[in-house]
Amino acid sequence: MNETSAYVPPRVWTPGKPNGGKFASTNRPVAGPTHEQALPVGKHPLQLYSLGTPNGQKAAIMLEELLAAGHSGAEYDAWLIDIGAGDQFSSGFVDINPNSKIPALVDRSGPEPFRVFESGAILVHLAEKFGTLLPTTPAARAECLAWLFWQVGSGPFVGGGFGHFYAYAPEKIEYAIDRYAMEVKRQLDVLDRRLAEHEYVAGGDYTIADIAIWPWYGGLVRNEAYNAAEFLSARDYRNVCRWADAVAARPAVQRGRAVNHTSDDGTTLRERHAASDFDAIRWQLPSPSSLQPGERVDDSTPPAKT
């Protein structure tokens, strides 16, 4: 690419014209609330404030996995935070996450409620609280946490980098797309090599590492993120595809990923306050990675509740 940009950065950057793109309204150069609005509080010990993006799915999937394993103390209310409408900038949400990003959790199970923000922190908190999905032996715990934080560090290249420039930017910039596509493919190869030797990311058992990684990288290879599976030759990563389909088939994953969506098409929930809320969903079987990009397998049978 030999063309040079006509843009010359000023010595000091200041916000000017709107930057365009699908999520332009969510971006601003300062923190803090834009308006006063308290958050709703339900009856359950855990209050989740989220949106069904890959990061938001992590927390809801974790909670559904805990409930499926019989941890009744993991009952939760899931409240929709519509980032397109600016809900994340309300005073109530900023109080529980000063970074104004979903998901955020308030643990009200003890005498004093406390906040937990950042998806990785939520997963660790819940795993430790209920004593599951995080190994306890030093070596296995370290491996699990290393892969969890691999996702936390690598994810922005997938979403804010590749996803933004490939799917959402107001214009296609070859340099940006090439740069981030190369990095995402490198990350997929890292994951593929790991999964060639292990059933799950952290080893032989399903853990919070899988819960953190699956919404992003499973979404890529299953063509459920950015419609980019063909562009990235996703089916070349056969071990990632095998793992992604296995995780997608878990009933708790199917329920968790359906929580906190703005769509009213009957396949998802805006809010979740009881297990019975899922009864209203028109369920779809998870589409295996071997299907052609965009193909789906429809079914009205809901995933098992336990």
Fold topology:
Elements: E1 46-50, H1 54-68, E2 76-80, H2 91-96, E3 104-107, E4 114-117, H3 119-130, H4 138-168, H5 174-195, H6 208-221, H7 238-248, H8 251-257, E5 284-285, E6 297-298
Parallel strand pairs: 1-2
Antiparallel strand pairs: 1-3, 3-4, 5-6
Textual characterization of the structure:
The protein is α+β, with helices and mostly antiparallel strands. The protein has a domain at 138-259 and 275-298: Glutathione S-transferase Yfyf (Class Pi), Chain A, domain 2. The chain contains 8 helices and 6 strands, in the order βαβαββααααααββ. The strands form 2 sheets. Strands 2-1-3-4 form a 4-stranded mixed sheet, covered by helices on one side. A two-stranded antiparallel sheet has the order 5-6. The protein is globular, with a radius of gyration of 20 Å. The model is unreliable at 290-301 (pLDDT under 50).
Short descriptors:
306 residues, alpha+beta, Glutathione S-transferase Yfyf (Class Pi), Chain A, domain 2, two-stranded antiparallel sheet, 8 helices, globular
Shape: globular
The DSSP helix count reads 8
Output the structural class.
alpha+beta
Number of strand elements: 6
Report the β-strand fraction as a percent range: 5-15%
- Helix content range: 25-40%
Largest sheet: 4 strands, mixed
Record the strand order, biggest sheet. Answer: 2-1-3-4
Named CATH architecture of one domain: Up-down Bundle
Radius of gyration: 20 Å
- List segments where confidence is low: pLDDT < 50 over at least 5 consecutive residues: 290-301
Distance between the termini: 54 Å
CATH class assignment of one domain: Mainly Alpha
Mean pLDDT across every amino acid position = 92
Order of helices and strands: EHEHEEHHHHHHEE
